[in-house]
Amino acid sequence: MKWILSIALAVSVAANVWLAFRLFDASVTQAYMEESIQSNQMALLQCIAVTNEFLDSGARREALIAKAKAVSGVHSMFSNDGHFWIGSFGMDFDKDGRLISVAEWGSVYEQIKEREHWVPAQGRLPYCN
C-alpha cells in the first residue's frame, strides 16, 4: 500500500511540475506575442501615414521621414544600405528623394537569413530587397 501511495505522489508531483512549466512557457510566449503585435501595429500605422502623405502630396524624403517619426514617437532611427529605418519600418528612396518601397524589419531580416546575406560579425545588412 505504501508503494502505491509513493507512486501516486511521484506522478502527482511530476504532473504539477509539467503543468507549471507549461504555464511559464505560455506566459513567456504571450509576452513575446504582445510585443510583436505592438511592433507590427506601429509599422502598419507608419506605413499608412507615409503612404497617405505620399499619395496626397507627392511628398519627398524629408516630409515622409518626418511623418513616420511623428507617428512612431520615440523609436530609434538609422539608415542602412539605402533604407531609412524608424523602429521596424523602413523606407527606400531613389536619388530624387521619391519613395520607392517600404519594408518591415522582421520580414526583411527573415529574407536576408534565408538568402544567407546576413554578416553577423560585421552586424550590417549587405542586401535589402
Q: Into which percentage range does the β-strand content fall?
A: 5-15%
| Count of helical regions | 3
Radius of gyration: 24 Å
User: How many β-strands, per DSSP?
Assistant: 4
Q: State the end-to-end distance.
A: 69 Å
Oligomer category: single chain
Average pLDDT value?
A: 76
Low-confidence stretches: 118-129
Structure class: alpha+beta
Helix content: 55-70%
Taken in chain order, the helices and strands follow as: HHEEEEH
Strand line-up of the largest beta sheet: 1-2-3-4
List the helices and strands and how they pair.
Blueprint: H1 2-57, H2 61-72, E1 77-80, E2 83-86, E3 89-93, E4 99-104, H3 105-115
Antiparallel strand pairs: 1-2, 2-3, 3-4
Helix pairs in contact: 1-2
Annotation keywords:
single chain, 129 residues, alpha+beta, 3 helices, 4 strands, rod-shaped, disordered C terminus
Describe this structure in words.
- This protein has helices spanning 2-57, 61-72, 105-115, and strands at residues 77-80, 83-86, 89-93, 99-104.
- The radius of gyration is 24 Å and the shape is rod-shaped.
- Strands 1-2-3-4 form a four-stranded antiparallel sheet.
- A hairpin with a 5-residue loop joins β3 (89-93) and β4 (99-104).
- It has three helices and four strands, in the order ααββββα.
- The chain has 129 residues and is of the alpha+beta class.
- α1 (2-57) packs antiparallel against α2.
- It starts with a helix and ends in a 14-residue tail after the last helix.
- It has one domain.
- Helices cover 61% and strands 15% of the residues.
- The longest helix has 56 residues, at 2-57.
